[in-house]
Amino acid sequence: MSAGRYRPCGFRRAAYAALVFVVCCCLAATSQRVRAADALTVSLPDAVGDGTAVHVVVTSASPVKDFIFTWGKGTFVVPAFVEASVWKAQLLLPVALDAAPGVRSFSVRRGDEAESWAVRRQVQVQRVEYPVQKLTVAGRYVNLPKATLARHEAERQRVREILGRFTPEVHWRLPFKRPVPGEVSSDFGLRREFNGERRAPHRGLDLRGGEGDSVRACAAGRVMLAEEHYFSGNVVYIDHGLGVVSSYMHLSAFSVRPGDMVSAGDEVGKVGKTGRVTGPHLHFGLAVLGESIAPLPLLEGGVY
């Protein structure tokens, strides 16, 4: 056979070998990505109530820098940490108080993978029947004086800015520490009527305490605010990372200043009765991604 016949045949063989190589590489890459996606383990409840938080934990058997969570219209990048030779991340996702019952969509994926590789879940939101409390109090506790409206709105704006933060540093782990040992005097979500007038639901947890008792941080974090407010009295707000912020109200004294880093259990102030209250106690609040959520299920001894 002439040499001219061997050249086309050799060319075809080389091209075929190259094609096989490319296909094998693509199949190997696809197989690796399938294994990476399959290796994700996601833990979250199937159903939650309004005014609560969904605790999500995701683990990967292979190294990953971060995970991308999607909840409703929000997307959040959460750094991974290594624990027991697996890569993990956790996030609290809020269900707003009075949120309509129905199905919410959730997904999570490795930060190095396309959205099509996400693990998806459905979470059923159920309505919680919160109690109603009817109170008769002096008029000054019901109607806000006009002279204080501007001050109150400025205070609310500073708080909204803090609650709207999403810092990537993770300082919290569940369960949170109880800020004072006292029992609950008013639970989260309580519907109050003052002198027959319906008011906004109670968006925190009132805990009994004697004036001057220590109030301690529920988790590590950075103090964002420590100042006196009209309604809340002396308040402290702490950013714990990933959109989790705790608040401590009606304090008689501060033990921290803005910018301070605290550890779980550090004293942040003293129980008091500052602001618009009738007696000493701690109003403790937790906000997740800007939404107030029930603190008790996330505290030591709670159910979550």
From TrEMBL:
- Enumerate the transmembrane spans: none
| Keyword annotations from UniProtKB, A to Z | Signal
Instruction: Tell me the InterPro entries matching this sequence.
Output: Cell_wall_metabolism_enzyme (IPR050570), Dup_hybrid_motif (IPR011055), M23ase_b-sheet_dom (IPR016047)
Q: Where is the signal peptide?
A: 1-36
Q: Which GO terms describe its molecular function?
A: metalloendopeptidase activity
Ranges in coiled-coil conformation: none
Q: Which CDD domains match?
A: M23_peptidase
Question: Boundaries of each M23ase beta-sheet core domain copy?
Answer: 201-295
One Pfam family this chain carries? Peptidase_M23
Q: Has UniProt tagged this entry with the keyword Phosphoprotein?
A: no
Is Heme a UniProt keyword of this protein? no
PANTHER family (alphabetical)? PEPTIDASE M23 DOMAIN PROTEIN, PEPTIDASE-RELATED
What protein name does the entry list? Peptidase, M23/M37 family
Organism, by scientific name, is: Nitratidesulfovibrio vulgaris (strain ATCC 29579 / DSM 644 / CCUG 34227 / NCIMB 8303 / VKM B-1760 / Hildenborough) (Desulfovibrio vulgaris)
